[in-house]
Structures are given as structure tokens and as C-alpha cells.
Amino acid sequence: MAGRYGRPRSVLRMRTVAGQVFLLQVAIVVLLVATAITALVLQSQADSEREALNRSVSVAETFANSPGMEAALRSPDPTAVLQPKAEAARERSDVDFIVVFATDGTRYTHPLPDRIGRKFVGDFDAALAGEVVTEKLTGTIGPLVQAVVPVPGADGSVIALVSAGVTLDKVSGVAEEQFPLLFGVAGGVLLLATGGTALVTRRLRRQTHGLGPEEMTRMYEHHDAVLHAVREGVLIVGGDGRILLANDEARRLLDLPGDVDGRPVRELGLSPGTAALLASGRDASDVVVPVGGRLLAVNQRTTDQAGGPPGTVATLRDTTELRALSGRADTARGRLALLYDAGTEIGTTLDVVRTCEELAAFGASRLADYASVDLVEAVLRGEEPTATGADVDMRRVAFGGGEGTALYPVGHSIRFVPTTRMGAGLAQGEAVLEADLTSLSGWQRQDEDRARQLVEAGMHSMIAVPLRARGVVLGVAMFWRAGPAEPFEAEDLSLAEELVARAAVSVDNARRYSREHTMAVTLQQSLLPRVLPEQSGVDVAYRYRPAQAGLGGLGGVGGDWFDIIPLPGARVALVVGDVVGHGLHAAATMGRLRTAVHNFSSLDLPPDELLWHLDELVARIDQDEAGEAGEAGVTGATCVYAIYDPVAGRCSIARAGHLQPAVVAPDGTARFADVPGGPPLGLGGMPFETLELELEEGSRLVLYTDGLVEDREREIDEGLELLRRTLERYAGGTPEETCAEVLGAMVPQRPRDDVALLVGRTRILAADRTAWWDVPRDPAAVRGIRAAVTERLVAWGLGELVFSTELILSELVTNAIRYGEGPIGVRLIRDRSLICEVTDRSSTSPHLRQAAGTDEGGRGLFLVAQFAERWGTRYTGGGKVIWAELPYGSGEEPEIDLGLDLDGL
């Protein structure tokens, strides 16, 4: 069993007081039982001898005086008459033998017949004289007591003798019968002692909290030593107001008599206030009471809070010497409190001007009547000051203490005169105290007219402290007192220096933040789209709202981004992404991802493949930056990529850890597209899937970042539902109106996270703006295709493009017939440019190459590249599409150098 403080407690060692009492009780019970047994045995032996003596005498006398005894003895054969009677009497009387023998000792009877006629063994001389003889001896049958009784004759003479004997074993059974009772009583006593010990143990354990004798002794010794050695008075008062304990220090401090224990507090001769406090039984903390010539600090607590006895314990501490220092301590405490409050009220934002306003307001309310802050012009621009001290242009940015004074107003430009103490102090970075402005000791040379106005207005003292940070003077803070206020002293100067030093750090941090913020905002604005590209697939509107400073990290700079990318075939890609975090790194990462999406989209990849390539790129960037100390990876970026085809009215969407886009049907119902989810970019290991949607004309596709729907005041599910209801409520507006209404309904004035919103209203190209032809796998079919294309271009009014279009389609269709597979098709799309497309089932893409001068072929794609504005290949689920775009008004034939040596032909 574990004891208190983790020490094992042994039952055998009986370390507790109850255990020791139990052992003592067991020892007493055992001793008593042993004594009782011994007494019982001795008493039993005495009783056995007495019982044996009485029985043998009684039996012998009875048999000796029995009728017919004399006649039997005088008969010719006494044995024949007496032997049966003796045996019968022996059995009835429960003795071991009855022997009748003659006066000469010859036996007439004996339990053993062979011993009849032999001499009696024993002393019977006294019996011959008529006495009864008893003796204790050890015979053949063991220890016994025998009696010899004379048999008187008719004449009174002894004619014979009778001896009766009883062994001691026969009469000792009475004592043995008492042993069970004795042991039972002993066992009961032990059980009673055990139960009592258990009760005492439990009681003692509660009283002593499980402490053993050694622990209690040690605790008492320590308690007694500490109680009398401690330099604080300890006074314990019972619930009845009597003193239970007073240590030496308490007796000394209160001047108590020697017999104080047990006396009421109110009878100790203490002052009424002190006696009332000690006898009240209430809690008190650092209550100062006068006792004699001392000032005692009294702390008092009740003793029954944790189940203890009623009463109180009071500690007394002599504070007489400390009171002499209390004034300075209060001053220091007030100074620390002021600096602490300054730390919580100054520098609450990373804004230079706001920090200066907080310093001026705090200084005017807590240190002076008026306070002002002037900053170097470069600091206001977020730049590092190149010069310090006087002769540097400063601007007043904050003023506190009211209006209508002669002090410079906010916005006033100041240049301190170097010949004044203030100007010299600025040059050295030292504070200046002007305790008496009315003496005009030289400070007035800064502006004598204004100095005279200040003195007339009641200004009588001033402190000027440079704002220094990292060895550079950022500006100056000035504190003024007027009217009845006490003039500034040296202690006020040191306090102002500490106050301004702390504020200067905040100002410098805000300046450096402003510089970084400006750089980051410039970088971010240069990375986001500035104008919408021209495209015919969707009417697009967007909003970007950065997080505000102090709420979402580096205010105004985040990692949310969006893009609208025109794709071949009149298609358009809508992209929204989010890089977790804020600041330069998030903005730079966003720019890298946006550039990567542009590059991958130029390959005309489907959404799932583009995200796969983007995921690999991010993972590679993370791996490259993992070894650079202090660099964070890109992991945590999300993206949703959608491609809309206005010809087919279909939209392909894939997402990587991003929220589901919303789709608003032309009838105004809004829903979230169930785009298969993929992991955030950079995690890898999971494929991305594409969702194909049929979108009617006039449908709205809404892409956004999590800052739009997530907020501390609502769950994301509530935000999504609010977005859906808002989109349905304003479904009839333009994309611009939808963006404005959604942001107004869902985004607070100062958002905590970046918000990117992109709304696209779908269009569908009219059927008369496209044309399609199936091409047989026959080179002769090229001529028919050229004729059909020429006819359609003339009908569209694009006759100037006939030559270029015929040349391009002839080359592309011929290549498809020669190298492609499966059905071949030709499609023309009349959009912002003329788009020519040739499809086949082959996955082999043609490549542009530079033909040699002697090559007879290899110049077809070169001609396509010369006549088309752009051309390329995109792969579909059933093959590939080779496309080329011709701008309108490009019917002129370009001068083309095919690299042929015409002189050699």
C-alpha cells in the first residue's frame, strides 16, 4: 500500500499510530490469555488434587464403614466376599482402585487379581492408630492420590484397612473443558480490537491525512521551527474569538503577554480597530493597522474553507520601513502603469499617421496638456531618412489636446533651427527639457512671434523628444504644459523618453510595413489582369477585394487571383485561384501560378490535364524551395479551371481543392456544379476529373474564392447558401450588377480575407456563323472542299480571305488525308477572326520545320504559319483538331521566302 508522498507503507512495520496501538492490544490480549491459561492450569491441578483427595477419602471411608464389612473380614475367605464388592464400588465411584488389606499389609482385594495376597505399598502406620492417611505418589498407573482409612471393629479396634486411589488425569478434564471458552473469548477480544483499530485508523487517517508517526514528528518539528523562525507574525484565532496559537514574531509585534494562549482577542489590550479585525473572522488583504509605533500589514483568511475548523489565521508584517519608500514606489508604479497603457494604446495598427495620432492623444491625456508629432517627409513616404536632425523638412502629422492654440496645426511643414537647443538636440538625437518657457532661454528663435503667442496663451514648460529607431531620427514628439499644471521635471523627461522610444519602434515598423505594402500592392496589381481580353464566348465581370490591414495579415496584398483566357475555336477559359497567406510571397506565388496557367492554356489542354501539369509544377517549386531557409512553399494553393465553348454550348470544369462553382440558369435558379474534387495543388498522388455541362445561352457561371463565403461569424455552409440565394435574387441583372450585389450582400467593409469573384454570362454562336463539311479520304476531294469553302466565305462577305483560306485548308486537309485516320471534317467559324479547323482520328500532330533548299516538300505548315495569325493543335477524346485563325482584312498575299534556289531550277 502506497503511503503519503509516494513512500510504501508496510503492514508488518506498522508505521501508523493505529497500527502500533493494534499491536499493543494484541500483545496485551495474548499476555492475558497466557496468564489465564497458566492460572487455569495451576488452578486445575490444585482442584484435581483436591478432587482426587476428597474422592479417595470419601470412597475409602464409605467402603470401610459399609455394612457387613467386619463379618466379611472375619469370614474364612475375605477375598471371596470383598473382591466383588470392591470392584463394584470402584466402578460406581469412578476411582482407580479400592484395596482392602489386613493390618499387616496383606491385600484382600485389588483391581488386578494377581496382586491379591501381596503387601500393600504405602505408609499406613497412622491409619493403624485410627487416622485417615492421604498421600500423593506416582504409581504404575501414573500420578495419583490415595487415602488409607481404618476399618473399626465392634470393639473399636482397627481390624483392617481400606485404600482408595484416583489418578490425577481422571479428574483434570474440567480445566480442559474451559480452554475452548477461554480461546473463544480471546478471539472475540482480538476481533473487537481489530475493529476498533480499523475505526481508529480511519479516524486517525482523516485527522492526520495519512501521515505516519515519523512524518507527523518531522512535520511538527518543521512546523514548530518555521513558526518561530519566520519573520512574519502568525496568529491563529478560534471560532470563539480566542487565541489558539501565536508565534514569537506575533508576540513581539503585538506586544502580547506570555499566557496569551486561550485568551480572547478583545482582552489582549490591542487597539479597538486591530482587535475588531482579528476577532471579526473576515478575510483581509494587506490591511495596514497601527500598533504602538509600528504599521503592520495584516492578511487574514478563514480556516474552514477546505473543511478545517472554524477560525482565522492572520499574518502580520512590519511595513514601517517600507512606508518611507511608498511614495517613490507609487510613483514608479504609476510610471510603469503609464508605460504599460502606452504599449496597449499606441501602435495598434501598422499605419504611420495613425500611430502618431495615438502617441499625441496619449501624451496629451496622460503626460501633458498638449502633444504633437512631426515626421520627416521621407518617413511619410515609407522611405528610409537619409539625413537626421535639424535642416530636415518635417511635417506635423498629429496633434492632441484640443484646438485654438498657437501651436502649428496638422499638415504644417517645419524645419527646426540648428542654433536652438531643440535643433541641436535633434542633431544629436537627444531630448530637450524647457522647464520655464517664460524665460525665453533661446527656444523662441525657432519662431519668435509664435513663441510670444504660446507664452501669452499660458504655455510654461515643454519637452521635445526625437523619435529614434535603429539609430535614425524619424521625427520629434513635443509635449507642452500650460495653466495650473506643474512644470515638467527631470523625471518627466525620462518618462517622455521611454514613452517616445516605444512609440518610435511602432512608427518605424509602420514605415517599413508601408514600404513593403506599397511594393507588394504594386507587384500584385501588375500581376492581376488589368483589362478584359476580347472574346465572344461570355460576357464577363469580376471583382477583387483585398484583405484589410490588421485583419488579414498584410492588408491589400494576398494570393487570390483570376483570369480570362481566350482559346482557339472561339472558346474561353475562366480561372480562379487562391494561394494561402498574404504578403509578397503570396503575391509572387500567385503571379507564378497565373503565368503557368497561361502557358499551359496555350497548349490547349483539357481542364484536368492542365491542373495535373500545374500540380506537378507546384510540387517541383515546393521541392526546390524546401532547402532554402525561411522560404515557404506553395502548398495550399487551390484552383478551378473552366473552358466554355460557345459553338457547342458546353462547359468543361475541373478543380483542385477549390470550392464548387455556381451555375445560374436563365430562369434564375442557382445551383452549385458537382465538379469532382481534387487535392490542393502541390500534394500530388490524386488525379483530377472534368465535369461536362450543357449551358443554355444566358446562363451564368460564377467562380469565387473562399473569402467570399467564409467568415468568423458564419459557417461555410451558411455562406454558400447565402451566395446561392443572392445569385437567385439578382439573376436578372448584368454580370457587373451581379458582382456588385453579391459583394454588397456578402463581403463586409473590411474583409479579413481576399475575395475574388468572376461572373460569366454565356453566349452561343448562331448556327449561320459556322459551317461543317465531311471530307472523304480521297486527295481529289480537296478540290470540292475548296469550292465549298469559297462559296461560304463569299456568302459571309469574306471574299478577301478566300485565297489564304483555300491555301491553309488545302495543306491541312491534304495532310489529314495522307497521314490521319478515320473520318475527316472541316469546320469554319466566323467569330472575331475566321477560324479554320480540320479534325481527324489520329493522335499524331504535325510539326513545323525548316525545309532545306533541295527538299521537294516540308513547306506546307510553313505556308500555314505565314498566312495564319495563329495556328496549333488540340487533342480531343476522339482524335485531334488542327486549327488556324485568319484576321479579317488579311487577304493580301504575304511575301514568302521558301528557301528555293530559283537559279538552279
From TrEMBL:
Record keywords, A-Z: ATP-binding, Cell membrane, Hydrolase, Kinase, Membrane, Nucleotide-binding, Phosphoprotein, Transferase, Transmembrane, Transmembrane helix, Two-component regulatory system
Transmembrane segment boundaries: 21-42, 179-200
Q: Where is the PAS domain?
A: 221-286
InterPro entries for this protein: Bact_Sigma-Reg, GAF, GAF-like_dom_sf, HATPase_C_sf, HATPase_dom, PAS, PAS-like_dom_sf, PPM-type-like_dom_sf
Ranges where the GAF domain occurs: 341-517
Instruction: Indicate where this protein resides in the cell.
Output: Cell membrane
Q: Could you tell me which residue ranges the PPM-type phosphatase domain spans? A: 535-762
Q: What is this protein called?
A: SpoIIE family protein phosphatase/ATP-binding protein
| Originating species | Streptomyces sanyensis
